[in-house]
């Protein structure tokens, strides 16, 4: 069996620097150092990197060149972050329409293509260059390291594995990679009441240092173990991501596994945006690589303590720059300082995916957030999905716990009808499971009504 030390000093450098010729290891060492710099120093370097990126994009990316010229924006005028606030905010639609023109003319086609979009149903493709690839992996190593899950530690993944069939050589490459990384991967799509005992045995047999999981899947797994009275192997840490972590989920997971939960926040476009350190006071941002803003719908900074849109500028993806890109998530504004001594500012709280809003026949908009807010008060509702097939119809798909009582059903229906108005027919449908998106995530509100 490989030890962590042997792994870190021999296997990993050989794999990353030799075979793959990547700079990940070097970047990782830099990030391990820079996290202890003062906040002023980090933000100073961040701003200098932002200016470099803007100059690069204006010179080499046709889309940005044209857009900024049309808007009368000059990179030389950006002398502070306040000046940068005049720059336009992009969303997924911009990426879909202008991807090719957003690429750098100097990339010579040496780009890695990635896709995202399971949660909104509309796929988005984008590119990154090799340097950015190495940097973002290094940032992930550092962030996971805060939870004690540095490369070389044994990790058990309960993660969404792509559904599309992969060529055999790719599947083998993944297997080899996982073996070298000392990872055991269980597909979170395969998690069900039937497979829980199997996954339980696999975890107990592997005895990992850390469990890395989709939030929803790990919560579901933990709840099922608790109901069966099963005590799983207790790792040093449980790292969750890909979906918002609620307080009640953290509590249950920690009590079942007898180990601390570390929340992470990331996206396909940027990988790790923030992660918790052992102080659990918020998520330390990847400040060296990303400039993160919380903005309202008009593009203005959200007041501290208020919820706004997460807008990210990737300072190092020169292949296809993302400048002020609204990911589609929401978070609470206000970047605090941690007691651990790291200079990296904290993101207070990620609120999660911005949910679809529902239109009503009387011309109102009901924010999707209404539904989780309502349902959280009913312990017998395990999972739900709200579907609006037409303007005057709404279907509540509910996975119920065995102890559900029908009086609660009436209370939920009453509340929903009052909010949606008298012209919407609301249907209650108890279902055994809620279908996940292609990315293995749970979509809470689905509206098929065009705004
Ligand atoms: Zn900290």
What would your notes on this structure say?
By secondary structure, the protein is α/β, with parallel strands linked by helices. It contains 13 helices and 19 strands. Strand 5 (210-214), helix 10 and strand 6 form a beta-alpha-beta unit. The protein is globular and about 65 Å long. The structure holds zinc ion (ZN). Residues 277, 279, 284, 338, 340, 342 line the site of zinc ion (ZN).
Which hetero compounds are present in the coordinates? zinc ion
Radius of gyration: 23 Å
Categorize the overall geometry. Answer: globular
What is the name of the CATH topology of the largest domain? Rossmann fold
CATH class of the largest domain: Alpha Beta
Strand order of the main beta sheet, please? Answer: 4-3-5-6-7-8-9-13-12-11-10
Q: Averaged pLDDT, please?
A: 89
Strand content: 15-25%
Largest pleated sheet: 11 strands, mixed
Structural class: alpha/beta
Q: Kindly state the number of beta strands.
A: 19
Poorly predicted regions? none
Assembly form of the protein:
single chain
Name the CATH architecture of the largest domain: 3-Layer(aba) Sandwich
Number of helices: 13
**Considering the protein shown, what is the CATH homologous superfamily of the largest domain?**
ANL, N-terminal domain
The number of distinct structural domains comes to 2
> In which range does the helix fraction lie?
25-40%
Distance between the termini: 57 Å
């Amino acid at each position: 069996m490989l030890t962590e030390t042997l792994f870190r000093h021999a296997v990993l450098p050989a794999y990353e620097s030799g075979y793959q010729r990547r700079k990940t290891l070097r970047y990782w060492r830099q990030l391990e150092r820079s996290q202890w710099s003062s906040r002023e120093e980090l933000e100073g370097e961040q701003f200098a990197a932002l200016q470099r990126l803007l100059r690069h994009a204006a010179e080499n990316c046709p889309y940005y060149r044209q857009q900024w010229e049309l808007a009368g924006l000059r990179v030389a005028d950006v002398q502070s972050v306040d000046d940068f606030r005049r720059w336009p905010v992009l969303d997924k639609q911009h990426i879909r329409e202008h991807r090719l023109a957003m690429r750098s003319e100097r990339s010579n086609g040496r780009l890695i293509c990635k896709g995202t979009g399971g949660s909104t149903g509309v796929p988005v493709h984008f590119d990154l260059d090799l340097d950015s690839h190495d940097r973002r992996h290094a940032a992930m190593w550092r962030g996971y390291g805060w939870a004690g899950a540095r490369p070389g530690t044994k990790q058990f993944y309960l993660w969404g594995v792509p559904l599309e069939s992969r060529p055999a050589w790719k599947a083998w490459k993944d297997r080899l990679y996982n073996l070298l990384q000392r990872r055991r991967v269980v597909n979170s799509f395969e998690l069900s009441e039937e497979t829980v005992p199997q996954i339980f045995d696999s975890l107990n047999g592997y005895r990992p240092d850390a469990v890395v999981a989709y939030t929803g899947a790990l919560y579901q797994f933990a709840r099922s173990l608790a109901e069966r009275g099963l005590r799983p192997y207790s790792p040093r840490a449980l790292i969750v991501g890909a979906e918002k972590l609620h307080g009640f989920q953290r509590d249950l997971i920690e009590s079942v596994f007898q180990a601390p939960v570390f929340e992470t926040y990331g996206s396909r476009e940027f990988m790790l945006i923030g992660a918790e350190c052992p102080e659990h006071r918020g998520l330390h941002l990847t400040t060296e690589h990303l400039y993160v803003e919380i903005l309202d719908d008009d593009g203005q900074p959200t007041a501290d303590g208020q919820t706004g849109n997460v807008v990210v500028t990737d300072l190092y993806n020169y292949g296809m720059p993302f400048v002020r890109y609204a990911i589609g998530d929401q978070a609470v504004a206000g970047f605090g300082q941690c007691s651990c001594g790291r200079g990296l500012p904290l993101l207070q709280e990620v609120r999660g995916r911005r949910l679809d809003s529902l239109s009503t026949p009387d011309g109102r908009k009901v924010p999707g957030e209404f539904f989780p807010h309502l349902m959280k008060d009913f312990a017998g509702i395990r999972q739900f999905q709200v579907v609006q097939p037409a303007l005057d119809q709404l279907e509540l798909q509910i996975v119920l716990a065995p102890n559900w009582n029908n009086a609660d059903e009436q209370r939920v229906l009453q509340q929903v009808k009052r909010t949606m108005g008298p012209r919407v027919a609301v249907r209650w449908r108890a279902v055994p499971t809620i279908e996940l998106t292609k990315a293995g995530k749970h979509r809470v509100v689905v509206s098929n009504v065009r705004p």
